[in-house]
Specification:
Layout: H1 6-30, H2 40-58, H3 64-87, H4 89-95, E1 100-104, E2 107-108, H5 110-115, H6 120-129, E3 138-143, E4 149-153
Antiparallel strand pairs: 1-2, 1-3, 3-4
Amino acid sequence: MWFDSWTDILRIVLVGAASYTTLVVVLRLSGKRTLGQLNVFDFVVTVALGSTLATIFLSSDVSWSEGLTALALLAGLQLLVAWISARWPRARGVFTSEPALLLGDGEIRWDALHRNRLTASELRQAVRMQGIGDLSRVRAVVLETNGKLSVITCDRYGDGSALAELRGHDAHGGRRDGPGRGRDPG
């Protein structure tokens, strides 16, 4: 239990060093997206890479070449998904969520908050963390695909073109009347 053999220890050192080096090379080859801000698919790939590396390190049943194949496969799948997402925007929704407009023109969009399982308190916290104490000074709060909240103040809004893809946003005036505007229905 405490010690099996020096051969096992040597295997971990040698295979571990080779596997670590391989992972660094694979990540460098796969590009910045693999290590960028994570959406759900990126998170799954990152966890799978870590799990694979741990298995290569600790399991004598897995050879270094098998581990290299697994790491390369995961990085290749990540590249394939990124390529498909970039070429066919409709396919992007399979791998990532859409950004969501949670606050528009100082008014909380309760339907978007509920749909994304967030509270008004969390939204207000994001605004406060930007040093803003008045929601009426905020033109938009967006829940991004990586789970972060972007706060856009009225003075930084510009023409609003960065918000064009958001449901509930009208590129011409920033507002689109409809359900979810105003007070909390529940």
